[in-house]
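For the sake of clarity, the format in which proteins appear in this thesis is described at this point. The record quoted next illustrates the convention:

___
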Amino acid sequence: MDCITIKGLTFRACHGVLPHEREFAQTFTVDAELFCDLASAASDALSDTVDYGAAADYIESVVCGEPRALIEKLALLICEGLIARFALRGARVTVKKPEAPLSQRFSYVAATVERGVVR
């Protein structure tokens, strides 16, 4: 399966279960894999492929939109929305939260959602 990959989209937004997470913005990073047939891209025309700029804009609209309690919900909304908007065969989306409220040292907490045909 062909794939367009977008890695490391980074935004500031107010998502989380705790009240202070809904009040003060924190960093969220999104990785997305868009599974589709890229054979038509042989034409070298943007109209014959998935516009990854438009996909990145959609991801931004979800992350920077309505606050959600769970990063799992964000990943699900992004994944299902990408498939619907861009007629993808499938998608894999990971939302990373490097400023999660944990007392331990860590790099990030992440949720990954896969829908449709993936590798």
